[in-house]
Design brief:
Four copies of one chain form a homotetramer. Chain A contains eleven helices and 14 strands. Chain A is an alpha/beta fold. Chain A folds into two domains: 2-63, Alpha-Beta Plaits, CATH 3.30.70.1140; 83-341, TIM Barrel, CATH 3.20.20. In chain A, strands 7-8-9-10-11-12-13-14 form an eight-stranded parallel β-barrel, surrounded by seven helices. In chain A, strands 2-3-1-4 form a four-stranded antiparallel β-sheet, with helices on one face. Chains in contact: A-B, A-C, A-D, B-C, B-D, C-D.
């Protein structure tokens, strides 16, 4: 951490800052420029609440030089991680697709979709049983009944399963039925839920918050890992910007940024990001081309009658065509892909 | 809701849409323009998932014409509401200031601050016992112990009290000790927590999410009210934008917008919005000038040594000067203000 | 400027950086931390393109510690400036309102509006003769004819006059007819136009770009001042965010931020920021309360039939009521205000 | 255009609106819902300033249903366009790379770079002679001298050439030396410059403004085409968001959105979007994968000593490796690519 003093900072002001730091058991290092003086802090910064130094006289600003996340940080874990979900391994060398409906609506619907996405090359079945909806009057999910259907669909097809959780109760239920849990964008900084996900024992898919920086996102992952659960996968799903042509703005540059900053696997969800099924295929290819370890894609047997997010869902036919088209992109990225082997 | 068809939409496409709507028990109303055909839906839209209509052939887009929130909507409740917090009434005709430290650090600290803010004219003591922090390694709050200190400080000074809650456990504890609970920006769309806040029986201060539109914010309030708790106060605390000169961008235009769209009281938190104590006083005055029913302001006995958010906290002296300066602004807004009576 | 090296940066990497800097005639200052090494640069940085240092091996990032604008910087000009426009002085101690139609439509219309805003206390007449419009098919302004009407209206009423300019031709014409020119938001980084405004000899109102940071805005002001024209006034008019309840998001915190960073006067335009006439009055009061030196407000004789921006224009009656209500806010801010003297 | 009235709108209010519209020679179409009345406008809307209707009593809002751009609109020009630049054709079936330095620094530098990018498969040489820089104290370009070097480099290598223009003078000079002109992000709504580019006779690369919506961008293209110049190519180069890990946020979803809304070719500039050379290659592949017709990439002989934008420039070696890697992506997209033929 560096403290930049104001021009013409008084000698006593500089002394007050250095004394405060040293009083907390850290060392300082002064750098006298022509215009400003800079004070470097040497040692374990967790010992002091350095942000308060801004309140000291003649302090201009504080510049952090190291990241606050450690366990998720590639600097300290240079090798990319793989995360096991059921029999599947998500990470370097493979491309995994999580596909299924936004919301589980009925057993019959889910079975039909599960068979279809399995046939097309998906390895993980997604389906929402607990739906966080903007309006309290929208359909909120089948809850535990939906989880049961997910388990049955997983067993029948051999697909691994993932469900979003929104509360401790949902986690406690999910542990009984599915292979992986998802923390949604709106809960990315629900730190209580992150800690409980960390204690669940299940791998966790952590979606990016609508206005979360990469830095905040990795700190959220740190919450989960710090509870002893290293099995975290990050999912880029669009950020909120001024543009309204798509529901959110898919930030694909986050993929190479994350590959540099963290060892955790990264997947991309073009369905929620755009909210429009016609844009899903081109952006799915782009995601693989820029280094994603997988995709999450909404597929529905009858998008026009879906209870949630119909406009962004692919039909079985469109999803089948997409996985066919993705196969050569997986090969270019040196990733094995079930869709391409069939 | 209006459905705008594409130019040259086929007659069968228009027929498919109208039949689907009418099949769901609603009526349609066709408007044939020179370029496009528009289909109006007449009746109770909650009967169909109209957003899926986007997936129908030749549909260009869906335009909602009514808001999804009803209980929070001023159209259906034209009179502005007042919310009682302890003996205090927040709403038209009065200006209330919630003041105190970001985090409760110790009993002595809290008592000292409580007496100081009371003397300067605050009516409600704020103090965080459960702190949602970006990094898991930052100070997370004193939890129930902190709530107990809040209660004692409230009893000793006669101030009403408010604490942020982050989980059901925190709500269950808060109910025993404080007069009002706060849902923070990062939990604004934690719908489980909103429902539990709705069932708590306590008035709820609902902070705006960092990237929440006014529409989403009012839908979040609807979650609380729909549980039978009409005592919701909205708190504007800055939104996330590209500007970095302030921590967030305080959206004061939200105040007159909310006054038009909802009957709920609105307060403003310039401390969190800016993150810089020097900007708190001018923006507090601006908030009152544009119609806010109250303010939330961070005050600390020793900002340079605060465990959280020191840079944005006012000293006792600065807070006292601010309430003095606010008094004539309260008078101009025809609001009684305790600070001005002393 | 500070160069933060990566953890475990090789000694040769550090040497390469310091040699490059010293080769350019500057001095370096090393600070060896436990995790990272930091290199401070001492001397006149304009001698080297330091941003390229990012490309050097083992360099993590470059942190600027001084602002690039000097002439607009309050650090070097601690006293707030006043700018003369005709007989009017804009700056500390007075509150000036620029009012008038978005677009000059006819001589009769302009005269009528000029008399009305003068009577209500405005000191400067605004009116667009060159309109930058999103679509090429929208009304683009009366051009030089409009400027002539502005001059006549100014002479008849004694109001000073301001017009937006969009090209060198417009500046050359404006110099003949009006007292002040305006650079609009969409041209804030049209550096050619900024330089020509700087050479025009007229005071310049510089509106903030839709996505300009305060830092970029002050650098744009620097372009004008660097041409020898110190008479620059800044105008906050809303920034682009995700919120759609208002056309843009009025960033009132920019007012105290600017008061700290620059000596230039600052005014606020709530009409363009919100795009809704009902929000103009509360935000105009808020602007004065947080320190603005003036306001720019759209007033129209017949908003429902205006050729541009009707929805945000005030009628004469509403503008009159607003200036009456503003008078006590001006007094609280220790500013003389013509509106209050009548 | 649709006018949505407020609930309980008075019959006279509805009558006032319809009479105003019909008075302007248009027809109306009423749709009476259970809660609100909607008025559709039938006919040529350019006849009335419908936005002012918002000021009419009981009007809730105006919803446009058709786009304001016509010449750039794919609805009216369903076939994708190709644009000729020198001997090159940009559009369906080919992938073109524009490569070169951010700023032309000297003849020797430009020649060296031109030969290198030509050898690696670029078809167009880019190089800035007029540099719009945030600070007036940064290097502003070699101007006409730089254009002359561009011409010589084009003649020697057979590459087509493109230069940014910032003023009419720059356009008048560019016409003499280069094959294509570029309007930069900061000038995207400099409507005077757009019109002059439209009259220049040269093909125009129109970069997206930092905070421009797709809709505004296409309206800016419309300005150029409306002057009789249909040879416009759009260039996505990142938008401004809250994220700071990259300089801007590359909006790749804009590529499929544009492919749907316009017939104009679309290219992507990952160098300016990210500001970091390490992210250029993955995002270049992603751009091709999602449908871009070309790329603009910064290449420099010595990035560490570049006078502008060094950190984002590729070395010759990195650029050569990138074009090799891009070849199979071009094949998958069914595009011929010079880089792949060598």
């Amino acid at each position: 951490m560096i403290i930049v003093m104001k021009p013409q900072a008084a000698a006593e002001s500089i002394k007050a800052v250095t004394e405060y730091i040293e009083h907390n058991g850290l060392n300082t290092h002064l750098s006298q420029g022509t215009e400003v003086t800079i004070i470097g802090i040497v040692g374990d910064k967790s010992r002091l609440s350095t942000e308060n130094l801004v309140s000291f006289k003649d302090v201009d600003r504080i510049v952090p030089v190291t990241e606050s996340y450690k366990l998720a940080n590639r600097k300290f874990h240079p090798e990319p991680s793989s995360v096991k979900v059921g029999n599947i391994s998500i990470g370097p060398g493979s491309l995994n697709i999580m596909a299924g409906p936004c919301a589980v609506e009925s057993k019959g619907q889910l079975m039909e979709i599960a068979h279809a996405v399995k046939a097309a090359g998906a390895t993980i079945l997604r389906g929402g049983a607990y739906k966080p909806r903007t309006s309290p009057y929208s359909f909120q999910g089948l809850e535990e009944e939906g989880l049961r259907y997910m388990q049955e669909a997983g067993e029948e097809t051999g697909l691994a399963t993932i469900c979003e959780v929104v509360s401790r109760e949902a986690i406690e239920a999910a542990v009984k039925y599915v292979d992986m849990i998802q923390i949604g964008a709106r809960n990315m900084q629900n730190f209580i839920l992150l800690k409980e996900a960390g204690r669940s024992g299940l791998p966790v898919l952590l979606k990016r918050g609508l206005s979360a920086t990469v830095e905040e996102w990795l700190n959220a992952a740190e919450y989960i890992i710090a509870e002893g659960n290293p099995n975290v996968i990050l999912c880029e799903r669009g950020i909120r910007t001024f543009e309204t042509a798509t529901r959110n703005t898919l930030d694909l540059s986050a993929v190479p940024v994350l590959k540099e900053k963290t060892h955790l696997p990264v997947i991309v969800d073009p369905s929620h990001a755009t909210g429009v099924y016609r844009y899903v295929a081109p952006l799915a290819k782009a995601a693989v081309a820029c280094g994603a370890d997988g995709l999450m894609i909404e597929v529905h047997n009858d998008p026009a009658h879906a209870l949630s997010d119909g406009p962004q869902s692919l039909t079985f036919e469109k999803f089948g065509r997409l996985t066919e088209e993705l196969a050569p992109y997986a090969r270019l990225a040196a990733r094995s892909f079930q869709g391409s082997e069939e």
